[in-house]
Amino acid sequence: MKSAWPEGLKKTKTRERVLDVLEQEKCPLSALEICARIGGEGAVWPSTVYRTLEQFEKNGVVNRLTVMGSDTAVYELNRFCHKHYAVCMSCHKIVPMENCPMEAFTPRVQDDGFQVVGHNVEVYGYCAGCACNKSEGK
Ligand SMILES: [Zn+2]
Ligand SMILES: [Zn+2]
Q1: Residue 85 Cα, ligand 1 centroid: separation in angstroms?
Q2: Which of 34, 68, 104, 124 is surrounded by the fewest CB atoms within 10 Å?
């Protein structure tokens, strides 16, 4: 299903393609991965993709995440209310989580007027493939 074009954003070819790629992916992607997926005819420069993602982030179209042990930011479409990911410490694969540990949690913030609008949860471990290699290998 296609989501509506984000308000306040001019349509450009690159923006359309970046959005297309993100719409088809379940997992967050780095700018370079997005670039590689656009590929083919009329490939775009990574710098263009970075700029596009920055713009998207400002407009709330995408979420920017950085995962443990990596300097590379990854991006996901801001279509789920929110979602968490588990990160494999070995291959840095990002696996979506189905639940949120914060759902039943009310943050108590020392500043009375503080409005909580979001949170980050970092879960890490080994993905099925890496866990398997670990127990077999040695
Ligand atoms: Zn792994
Ligand atoms: Zn959550």
Answers
A1: 13
A2: 104
